[in-house]
Design goal:
Length: 314
């Protein structure tokens, strides 16, 4: 994220000196602003932007009605051959002499990259003067658009929860309010949905990684998903899917589990419990894996002994 360097003076306003299409980002435009930092402390600044409304009206009149203005904005920006350089340009006016109230103004050129919608809604015509508040709003719009594009790239690589995405944006240097605005925009576009994420995550973990509902619940909460969305996703998990996952894992691990029949079933059940499967399902899967292997004994494992060894409540 680019960080502009500014003269350490309050901004009095700015004037739009250039509007050109971004060469690499569709629907994005570079708007060049000549910032006015007012005057030295103690000198009057009332006349710096006293004619803003009049000058903006003149700029509007050059383009006629609103539709013509929009066409002029977009066509003029898109046909520009190259963006103006964003080098800092400082100039000083005449210094006050004697008892004269002439102010010494400081100027700096800066370039903001904004979306086409902002360009049109703010009516950023060349020659339009902006107040300090309007300049700050444009800076915020630029940050929000940058964060939005960064978020889209992250979501293309992998699905994320709202909490994960906001954390990633903050690590990139975006302010909390910018990250929140970006998340809200994505939620409205249905591109960020924790409820849908939780359901996909639950199914994928159960089928693809053979994990039980308790471990899946823990992982979703760690990813910042709201507990209500988590419980809904866990509640919709197909019991047969979870059962097949437990059996598949038990069958895979049984041959490599060491010990006698009772020890092997206890180890296998302990492993399934750690994978998040409920007690009854873990016990059933361990016994069935042993039975299918032809190694189970009807009295090979006593349930009370297992719970006593693992210090679990039935």
């Amino acid at each position: 994220m680019d960080k502009d360097k500014h003269i350490d003076l309050p901004i009095a306003g700015a004037v739009v000196t250039g509007v050109e299409a971004h060469p690499k980002k569709p629907h994005m435009y570079r708007v060049t602003l000549k910032l006015d930092f007012g005057t030295e402390p103690g000198l009057e600044t009332e006349d710096n932007f006293g004619e803003t409304a009049h000058e903006n009206a003149d700029a509007d009149e050059r383009y006629g009605d609103w539709n013509s203005e929009v066409d002029a904005l977009i066509v003029g920006a898109q046909t520009a051959k190259r963006a103006k350089k964003a080098d800092l340009v400082h100039s000083e006016g005449s210094a006050a002499t004697g008892h004269e109230s002439t102010a010494r103004s400081l100027h700096e050129e800066t370039v903001l990259t904004i979306h086409e919608d902002t360009l049109v809604s703010r009516r950023l015509l060349r020659g339009r003067r902006l107040t300090a508040e309007e300049v700050e709003v444009l800076r915020q719009d630029e940050q929000k658009e940058e964060a939005y594009r960064a978020a889209l790239l992250m979501l293309e690589r992998k699905a994320r929860t709202t909490a994960e995405l906001m954390m990633a944006l903050k690590r990139k240097g975006y302010a909390a309010e910018v990250a929140e605005a970006c998340a809200e925009r994505l939620r409205k576009m249905k591109m960020l949905d924790d409820s849908a994420y939780a359901k996909r995550f639950t199914e994928q973990r159960a089928v693809g990684q053979r994990k039980g509902r308790m471990l899946i619940r823990q992982e979703l909460l760690q990813r910042g998903v709201d507990r209500q969305d988590v419980e809904q996703a866990i509640g919709e998990l197909d019991g047969d899917v979870e059962r097949e996952a437990a059996l598949a894992l038990a069958r895979k691990r049984w041959p490599s589990t060491k010990g006698n029949d009772r020890e092997r079933q206890m180890k296998l059940m302990g492993m399934l419990l750690r994978r998040g499967f409920p007690n009854s399902l873990a016990r059933m899967a361990a016994q069935q894996a042993a039975a299918e292997a032809g190694e189970a004994r009807s009295d090979g494992m006593d349930e009370d002994d297992f719970y006593e060894d693992y210090d679990l409540e039935q």
